[in-house]
Amino acid sequence: MQILPAHKSPVHTGRATPPTRAAVYQATRLSHPELPAAPDAATLQQTIDASLRANAAYPNVILRSRHADDALQRARTRGLHQLVLLGAGFDSSALRLPSAKEQPLTIVEIDHPATQTLKRRCIDAAGRPWPITAHLVPADRAAEGLPTVLRRSPLHLAEPTFFSCLGVTMTQSRAANLATLHAIATAAAPGSELGFTYIDQARLDTPAAALSDAERSLHHDVASVGEPFVSGFHPADLPAELAAIGLQLLEDCSDVELLRRYDPEGVNGFVARGTSKVVHVRVGQRLE
User: Which pLDDT does position 151 carry in this prediction?
Assistant: First the structure.
């Protein structure tokens, strides 16, 4: 089973500036000089696919995207038709997710304006139309609180909303993460849901020498693009921490569990590391 259909695969779900296809190819040639300097379309695509799959974070990106898509789809059957992508980066949900005319999905992407400008430029260059129901809301989260950003967005805050925050919490401080969770519990309508990813704090506290080669490679890769891992959560403490701010934990599973769920036969050739977790929560009564 292919985890995400080919026509729905995320183009790039990280938050840092993505390299161009040509740059990825030429960088790969440094370690594979047998590749032609001027590749045909098939060679270019095959090389880029192989480069993506060689990245230690790639399986997690695909697994968490599939989990978020499934959670959103279930939420839509319960009447949630608004999606907020926090720290959206180059997440391709707006291009992948269907939006039926009778039940349109309003998508709000919140991120730094420079990132959003580059994203639109890349999408335009690819010849993809931007959905009319998707809205880019520029924000410097260091200078403006999330509730303020939400209020100036096209959202109807009185209606339940699905929030998605993938690959973000580990690059922020614990205080910033708790502030974001509290802001959602405070501003979102009861019944709203949130999916986010985190890293087990115990792994971040582990000396580098005791980490696996794959973990060290991942830490190096994210630090090299200016977004090192900063903080995590302790899984045993998370349910109580969420409940204290009005969020009900529905699911907390590792990438290993997701791989067993979505690809039990190993068709995609993914290797999960077990260090990243995906959480699904629901907003209770609005906090004051």
Answer: 94
H helices of the chain, in order, are 21-31, 41-54, 58-77, 93-96, 113-125, 146-151, 174-187, 201-204, 213-224, 238-244, 255-262
Single out the residue of 226, 230, 218, 131 nearest to residue 177, CA to CA. Answer: 230
Amino acid at 61: V
Question: What is the rounded distance in angstroms from the CA atom of residue 7 to the CA atom of residue 281?
Answer: 29
Query: Residue 208: is its pLDDT beyond 90?
Result: no
Contact 13, 61 (CB under 8 A): yes
Task: Tell me the two tokens of residue 72.
Answer: 């959103």
pLDDT greater than 60 at residue 15? no
Q: Which residues contact 179 (CB under 8 A, 6 or more apart)?
A: 145, 146
Contacts of 152 (CB under 8 A, 6+ apart): 137
CB 111 within 8 A of CB 139: yes
CB atoms within 10 A of CB 122: 16
Residue 243 and residue 247: Cα distance in Å, rounded? 5
Q: What are phi and psi of 136, to 5 degrees?
A: -90, 120
213 has pLDDT over 90 = no
Answer whether 266's CB lies under 8 Å from 70's CB. Answer: no
The residue type of 214 is A
Reduced to 3 states (helix: H, G, I; strand: E, B; else coil), residue 237 is coil
Quick check: 87 and 14 in contact, CB under 8 A? no
Q: 106-111 and 162-165: which strand pairing?
A: unpaired
pTM: 0.85
